[in-house]
Design a protein that fits this description.
This protein has about 35 residues and is an alpha+beta fold. The chain has one domain. The chain is about 35% helix and about 10% strand. It is built from 1 helix and 2 strands; from the N terminus they run E-E-H.
Length: about 35
């Protein structure tokens, strides 16, 4: 998944560079929080 999150009907979401390097679970959490904002 290198930087992408599986999002069923939505297109893959590219995680910002600042998020790279974090654990996968933390990465997905970060994406979910950013999608909410």
């Amino acid at each position: 998944r290198r930087g992408y999150r599986d999002s069923g009907k939505r297109k893959p979401f590219l995680i910002p560079d600042e998020s790279f390097g974090k654990p996968l679970k933390e990465l997905e959490f970060c994406v979910l929080e950013k999608r909410v904002e």
